[in-house]
Amino acid sequence: ARVDVKFKSIPRDVLDKRPDLILLDLNMPVMDGVAFLGVIRSYIRLRFIPIVVMTGNADPATLEEVHHNGVTQILTKGNFDFADIRRAIGQASAPPPSEMPEDLDRPGAAE
Question: Which residues contact 71 (CB under 8 A, 6 or more apart)?
Answer without folding.
Answer: 24, 37, 51, 52, 53
